[in-house]
Amino acid sequence: MERREFQAESKKLLDMVINSIYSQREVFLRELISNASDAIDKLYYRALTDDNLTFDKDSYFIKLDPNKDTRTLTITDTGIGMTKEEMESNLGIIAKSGSHQFKEENEIKDGHDIIGQFGVGFYAAFMVAEKVTVISRSVDSEEAYKWESTGPEGYTIEPAEKAEVGTKIILKIKENEEEENYDEFLEEYRLKQIVKKYSDFIRYPIKMDVTESKLKEGTEDEYEDVITEETLNTMIPIWKKNKSELTDEDYENFYREKHYGFDKPLKHIHLSVDGAVRYDAILYIPESAPYNYYTKEYEKGLELYSNGVLIMEKSPELLPDYFGFVKGLVDSEDLSLNISREMLQHDRQLRTIAKNINKRIKQQLKQVLNNDREAYERFYQSFGQQLKFGVYSDFGQHKEVLQDLLLFYSSKEKKLVTLDEYVERMPEEQKYIYYAQGDSVDRVDKLPQTELVKDKGYEILYFTDEIDEFAIRMLMSYKEKEFRNVSSGDLGIEQDEKEKEEEKETEKEHEELFTKMKELLGDKVTAVRASKRLKSHPVVLTADGDISIEMEKIINSMPDDQQIKADKVLEINVDHEIMNALEQAKEQGDEHLKLYTNLLYNQALLIEGLPIEDPVAFTNDICKVML
Ligand SMILES: Nc1ncnc2c1ncn2[C@@H]1O[C@H](COP(=O)(O)OP(=O)(O)OP(=O)(O)O)[C@@H](O)[C@H]1O
To answer: Which atom of ligand 1 is nearest to the CA of 35?
Structure first.
């Protein structure tokens, strides 16, 4: 028996396969099973043109046989086999793919897509095996041959005995090393796991004899090992089935089987696209957020398959951040994979798929919003913040996609409404879309700032999430209607001549008092003014300029210590009885007016949910007034 050397380049390549191409050792099994499946597919193609051959799908299988005593793992297939020459060229020259050549020579169709293309996968066996033996008999030969190698030193080929057509690969599993455990590749449970993970949708059954300890018949506490042959893979992926054959329950079961979430998914999307890039996808919109969703630990992404073989557990490129909650998978035969199948060579196909998927998710959400509001609200409860963050992020790039998916609580409807519903209801003379912010609907409801707008009969959107105002600032307007904070200086509410006249008079009347009050407050406020928006409450703090008080609160609570200040204005309700008290205080001297001004300013801070600078002084001030 003559030992043959691998070609010089092959030696280097083999070293690379063993040591650096694959990041996980377990993929050796994926590679050998894919080869076995390719070999059966080749028989199928041969039968199409060869009258002497019939292909009965049910008689083909792949079998795994772990044996701890001999430390071997045998993978047997009933495929096309290899002649001596094929062994020479396909296993003797690394990076020579018989499968690739086969694809070139045969017209590949019917979804029997050959997986192999690079001619390196087989050698992944050396990551776990110290010796690899291949015994194969080709469909074209009466004789069988044995190929054997212990790695870079070379290989031998000699005649062998094998009754049936097909290939048997015997891996002599390496001994454990200090930090490496190879025993796991002889364990039934582990092999099952690896098959499920990577090869669950291989078209042919992957079988293994599984040992189970069972109660011995006729006894109560005696157990015996029972061996049964199990098929480890599901074979037909749900996404390759016809949609009409599948029920909601099937999709829900698949969601659970895949551990996409513990909840019941809100909706699923099943796509079979036959366009420029062909792919199938099953996507789920979950109903509730995983516990770590809003943390750094959460990783978005879809599973990526190529021809039913898992390539990536989480491909982040397939989902934009704002739809990062979507779960599911994509299977495409059109991906250009790199040699380890762990990455893609071009992301063009992936980008096309991602773009389509993005569109479909939006459509689906819109549909739920329009047809099943209750379900959408449940979804929004979990992921509304994410959508709003999506509007805000990347300098508002995605606002067009997302604006119609937003909901806010409405002062009028007392429930969540869309921006479209708001704008549709706006009276003609209403200039802006009004909003007010606070920690909760109850709190916003009681805000004095909302009085005038409500009095006018206009609807107000309540912003109770920190992100709300930031997102809306990015949006700027919706259907050409600008957003306006109810606390802002200009509310765009038209006044008639008489009202304007009255306002001027009031300003003049109290000018001296307000100037004095502003002096007493110093730079705590930029102005003290007669309020146009208050009806029953005595005071309120509002903001001039771009930064609202709510934004000041949020930004200042962030860890990066960017201290910013809103231009606060103390507004006084001149129709309130408090005005008399203030005018009297002014007459009584600065001391008195200062006491009242501070009290009112601190009250306004409290209403806004802002901290009082000196609570002790504030309570002392109250006592002074009481005594
Ligand atoms: N079980 C098998 N039965 C028949 N032929 C096989 C078998 N395993 C490997 N071969 C032959 O050996 C060749 C090399 O296999 P290898 O796994 O290295 O590459 P590949 O499958 O062609 O490509 P890839 O690197 O993309 O997996 C295959 O193309 C095929 O012709």
So the answer is: 8
